[in-house]
Amino acid sequence: xxxxxxxxxxxxxxxxxxxxxxxxxxxxxxxxxxxxxxxxxxxxxxxxxxxxxxxxxxxxxxxxxxxxxxxxxxxxxxxxxxxxxxxxxxxxxxxxxxxxxxxxxxxxxxxxxxxxxxxxxxxxxxxxxxxxxxxxxxxxxxxxxxxxxxxxxxxxxxxxxxxxxxxxxxxxxxxxxxxxxxxxxxxxxxxxxxxxxxxxxxxxxxxxxxxxxxxxxxxxxxxxxxxxxxxxxxxxxxxxxxxxxxxxxxxxxxxxxxxxxxxxxxxxxxxxxxxxxxxxxxxxxxxxxxxxxxxxxxxxxxxxxxxxxxxxxxxxxxxx
Length: 320
Known about the structure:
Largest sheet: none
Number of helices: 17
Oligomer: single chain
Order of helices and strands: HHHHHHHHHHHHHHHHH
Distance between the termini: 13 Å
């Protein structure tokens, strides 16, 4: 791994605020971000990145790379939960396996946003269509996870209709906001977009820093109890993202030229959802343990990706 990439990432103020949040928890500080403020900031980040992605997409010519990226993203969202489910079944019950598999087949919007910030620091361009790729990867993984649970579950009385679950997934606030913002950004003229640039662009990194501080506090609270659940969950939370991210870094070179786009695909493949999927699983798999699949994605995979994963996947993408 290129050492300067790792140093640049670890000295990123936004990431340092994440570590500050973890340290605050370990010191038993009363530092916290009000829940209402945290929710507003997360919605702001999704709105901003969706709008800017729509603007980029409106200025881009339709190309084979865009369609390859979208298709590859959907394929990943279908394959990852499929193969991880059967690995997880060696250790966990059907409900927990399905929920975890859906989480790792889906994506983390905050990891994606942090990756965009990392690319900007490294001055590496990327396509606005990658926001659309992120948005469409939520529902397929949930669909596969629910289907696997339905097929493997012998007690059909507890089954929730797939259509109801998917409707809930697609109308989830975060998914709806990112897709809606992308469309609005696409439709807005350059002059109109310039009028709200101070809101969508100028304050973005500041809000990201505050949000990562909140993520650090949340991760710090969850990781201690999670580590008591055994080694399998921890190893899975690191190894599976590594395998997915590195594999996509190599495979994507066959049909995508842009380093930035290939890097973002790797990050999407390596990330795990801790917002949209848990919301869907409350309905689809009420027996699944959120104390297992949420900390796996938030307290282990997320910190690993934004510290080691970002420079590692970029280094591999640049070498291939």
